[in-house]
Write the structure tokens for this entry.
Amino acid sequence: MKLKAYFGSVLIGLALGATAQAQDYIPVLQYHHVSETSPKSTSVTPEQFTEHMDYLKSANFQVIDLRMALDDLKAGKPLPEKAVAITFDDAYRNIYQFGFPILKERDFPFTVFINTEPVQRKSRSFLTWEQMKEMQGFGGVFANHTISHPYMLRKNEAESDVEWLARMRNEVDTVEILLEDNLGSSPKMLAYPYGESNSQIHEMLKEQGIIAFGQQSGVVSAESDYLNLPRFPASGAYAKLATLKTKLNSKPMPLVSQESSSFYAGDLPVSLTLKFKEGKYRLKDFVCYVSGQGKASLDWVSDTEVIATASKAFRVGRGRINCTMPDNTGRQYHWYSHVWIRPGVDQGYILEKSEN
């Protein structure tokens, strides 16, 4: 039923080609808890979630299966106009209790990235395999969020680089096996816990044909990095419908390239170099914001290249620069985000250029 609905939407979008362009990108929403009693920073209440889903319905967004959408984008196939995908992280049981009925009523497909350790030990706070099987019958897809939800770039005490990478491989491979054994298949998608990854992990996933998501915000297109895709958080401070509307109507930033000296931040302010495609854009309205700092300074190297720099160094933890620019109509925004990690003392982060 879901396949028919999805391809039906695509055919409708193609039939409307004379009046509307097919969409070649997709915003992906990220949720965690659907509950009134879970941590507010990672939660939406059932009322808020209903409001979000009702808006998608009333505004004629086409909620489609995530993996199918990604495959189509990579193949250059059009998506339905106003396509969007819905995801959850961490396999909390309240997704089944309070989120699933809302999704089922609206016939919306969705993806849940599960960490399997609490599922396997039958934690009452997490989904069961039986609940997941039931959700599969109504558009639910279950993907990889590792076994234990580790900081993937941190080594254990006295652990070598080789041992660290082997542990990360096991965190991923074990979940793939459990998905196959308990649900019959894996969509070969992973969400990095805390959004952490590096080139070694990317290479490991590439070998297995796994698509992966970070925790930077933005819109997915054919030109995105499919080993570190963006999503828009829609919980906690990001649950307000007014701001969510802007994100749902966002487009990819028209970039030729983006460069940062490191994915780790240190004692100096971070910077980001963006080079735009040739074309007519509202570059005068381009702006970047640094988490906790306000606007980034912009140094235009040329008419199509800019360096965005934070005003001061990040604190320990994660920090980001979000950049937006209205499109030529002024009705939608191009969006780009980049995340850095500033390691704390003795947190054991893997060296960036380790060859071991």
